[in-house]
């Protein structure tokens, strides 16, 4: 295929199995920042979800078919220019995708101030130019430069050149992307104050209270029985009292008490009564989780996991991470702060179309969820939690409770991280929320070549309908056996 110079509306057949779309311009003083992006559209002309938008903050589609390669200063054929590229493997494009729209956006000015703007289509393997479209614009801040589309079982490329004065946000919204960059989050509300209540009945102390001093010394032959030393853990089959739980609202405190009892029962059933462990919570914040966040399912999961930390961790605290395209550590969850923690930190990821500073209106401790994104990159948060455990070693094992709704596609990277983690004092309990593809996570139990099985997995269709006893039994069924095996192997 020879290079073709296209005018607006013209098209050309594409024979190459993989192509690279290059947005080229001449930078200089007063020239806006220019970015390339791509939208994967169905026959309805809209994206299926926000994951069908590929750009610098979300650089790879989950199918692997489309990727944002980033900018480079153009030597060789394009001296004195800057190029931003998107690569498309046409063989890997999902059947539901009919068009791939190639877009450009300008931040800090209009395209009328961008000289030498063109869109080049190249063979990804050879770098041969297949087509070129020189574009002109005036007041536009976003453009659809061209599109790859299916026609009669083959792919074609069309020069479009449609401009948007409303910027990339307006362009993306037209194709079904949810954009809320300009909508500041609601200001943190004042925490609701629970009505004064009598404190719960005090838990019996673990050390005996000295008896009152008698009026006369007892006979030497009959001294009072000495107090038993405190056990290393509270009662083997009973719930622990955790500092701060007395500050919880009455209904939440009652739920916590019952759930701690269930956790204690589950641990006892699996031969781990009285065990102590550090608990780490990991929450999937990818775009497909939006429904579960909006319906309060994730908040309920966190409350139920707080009971696990209250029973296992000697201080009742729980470290926490959120993740999607990128991971972010959340403030530690202290039991007495649970209602406020749920309100501030149980949040789904967001798309950010612009390179801006921290989102306005956030509480100082809140993560800017635009930095987290909406894609699934489990391997990144696994690596970050591993680094935390290495940097902050504990005298007890670490239990990671990892919740995800699937869409796993970084299988090789995830497997590598979890295999390398075998020699670390960490057990990874993955919980699937729904029936999505969990990839290597659900196969890891059967993968050979590990000294100990450091990973557990189960999935539930609707975790909100799973009773506490069943949930805790499944959640804690493999951790005790790992503790035993890891101890024998010298890992603990």
From TrEMBL:
From the UniProt entry, list the residue stretches annotated as the region Disordered: 179-249
SMART domains on file: VWA
Q: Which domain of life is it from?
A: Bacteria
Q: Where is the composition biased (Pro residues)?
A: 185-233
VWFA domain residues are 278-475
- Matching PROSITE patterns: VWFA
Q: Which CDD domains match?
A: TerD_like
Give the matching Pfam families: TerD (PF02342), vWA-TerF-like (PF10138)
| Family statement | Belongs to the CAPAB/TerDEXZ family.
- Any idea what this protein is called? Stress response protein
């Amino acid at each position: 295929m020879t290079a073709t110079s296209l005018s607006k509306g013209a098209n050309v057949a594409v024979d190459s199995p993989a192509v690279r779309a290059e947005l080229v311009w001449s930078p200089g003083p007063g020239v806006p920042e220019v970015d390339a992006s791509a939208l994967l559209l169905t026959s309805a002309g809209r994206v299926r979800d926000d994951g069908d938008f590929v750009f610098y903050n979300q650089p790879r589609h989950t199918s692997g078919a489309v990727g944002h390669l980033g900018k480079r200063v153009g030597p060789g054929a394009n001296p004195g220019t800057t190029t931003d590229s998107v690569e498309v493997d046409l063989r890997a494009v999902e059947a539901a995708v009919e068009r791939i729209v190639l877009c450009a956006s300008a931040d800090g000015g209009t395209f009328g101030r961008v000289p030498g703007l063109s869109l080049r289509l190249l063979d990804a393997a050879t770098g041969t130019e297949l087509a070129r479209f020189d574009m002109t614009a005036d007041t536009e801040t976003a453009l659809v430069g061209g599109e790859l589309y299916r026609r009669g079982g083959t792919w074609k490329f069309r020069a479009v050149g449609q401009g948007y004065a409303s910027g990339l946000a307006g362009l993306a919204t037209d194709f079904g992307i949810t954009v809320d960059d300009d909508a500041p989050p609601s200001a943190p509300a004042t925490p609701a104050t629970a009505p004064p209540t009598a404190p719960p009945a005090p838990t019996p102390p673990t050390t005996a209270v000295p008896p009152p001093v008698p009026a006369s010394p007892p006979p030497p032959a009959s001294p009072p029985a000495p107090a038993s030393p405190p056990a290393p853990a509270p009662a083997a089959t009973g719930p622990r009292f955790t500092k701060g739980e007395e500050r919880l609202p009455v209904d939440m405190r009652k739920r916590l008490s019952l759930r701690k009892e269930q956790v204690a029962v589950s641990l006892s059933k699996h031969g781990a009564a009285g065990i102590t462990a550090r608990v780490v919570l990991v929450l999937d914040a990818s775009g497909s989780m939006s429904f579960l966040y909006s319906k309060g399912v994730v908040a309920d999961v966190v409350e139920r996991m707080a009971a696990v930390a209250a029973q296992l961790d000697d201080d009742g605290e729980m470290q926490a991470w959120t993740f999607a395209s990128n991971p972010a550590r959340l403030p530690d969850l202290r039991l007495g702060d649970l209602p406020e923690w749920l309100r501030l930190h149980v949040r789904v990821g967001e798309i950010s179309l612009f390179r801006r500073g921290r989102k306005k209106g956030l509480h100082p401790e809140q993560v800017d969820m635009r930095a987290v994104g909406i894609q699934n990159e489990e391997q990144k948060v696994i690596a970050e939690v591993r680094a935390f455990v290495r940097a902050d070693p504990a005298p007890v094992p670490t239990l990671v409770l990892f919740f995800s709704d699937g869409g796993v596609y970084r299988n090789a990277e995830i497997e590598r991280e979890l295999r390398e983690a075998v020699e670390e004092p960490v057990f990874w309990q993955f919980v699937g929320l729904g029936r999505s593809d969990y990839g290597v996570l659900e196969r890891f139990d059967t993968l050979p070549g590990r000294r100990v099985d450091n990973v557990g997995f189960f999935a539930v269709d609707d975790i909100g309908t799973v009773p506490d006893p069943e949930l805790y039994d499944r959640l804690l069924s493999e951790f005790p056996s790992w503790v035993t095996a890891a101890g024998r192997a010298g890992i603990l």
